[in-house]
Automatic annotation (TrEMBL):
Belongs to the bacterial ribosomal protein bL31 family. Type B subfamily. Keywords: Ribonucleoprotein, Ribosomal protein. PANTHER family: 50S RIBOSOMAL PROTEIN L31, CHLOROPLASTIC, LARGE RIBOSOMAL SUBUNIT PROTEIN BL31C. GO terms for cellular component: ribosome. Part of the 50S ribosomal subunit. NCBIfam families: L31, PRK01678.1. It comes from Streptomyces plumbiresistens. InterPro entries: Ribosomal_bL28/bL31-like_sf, Ribosomal_bL31, Ribosomal_bL31_B, Ribosomal_bL31_sf. The lineage of its organism: Bacteria, Bacillati, Actinomycetota, Actinomycetes, Kitasatosporales. SUPFAM superfamilies: L28p-like. The gene is rpmE2. This is Large ribosomal subunit protein bL31B.
Length: 82
């Protein structure tokens, strides 16, 4: 890699507020907020809305919408055009 053109790559804690879960990884993201991690070091922390721990697709709680039933109900209610 060429020197001086890439952002600094450093350890960052990502915290999922919905699931009360955090993980330490490396990233170019920065934050003014910091948190003391399990190893005793202080790292910048980035709060995220959703992660693999709280996302319905990964947790198995995703709902499948019954689109065929919705279309039929709409046609019954308002009559089929055509």
């Amino acid at each position: 890699m060429r020197k001086g053109i890439h952002p600094e790559y450093h350890p960052v804690v990502f915290r999922d507020r919905a699931a009360d879960y955090a993980f330490l990884t490396r990233s170019t993201m920065t934050s003014e907020k910091t948190v003391e991690w399990e190893d005793g070091n202080t790292y910048p922390v980035v709060d995220v809305e959703i992660s693999d721990v709280s996302h319905p697709f990964y947790t198995g709680t995703a709902r499948v919408l019954d689109t065929a039933g919705r279309v039929e109900r709409f046609e019954r209610r308002y009559g089929k055009q055509g």
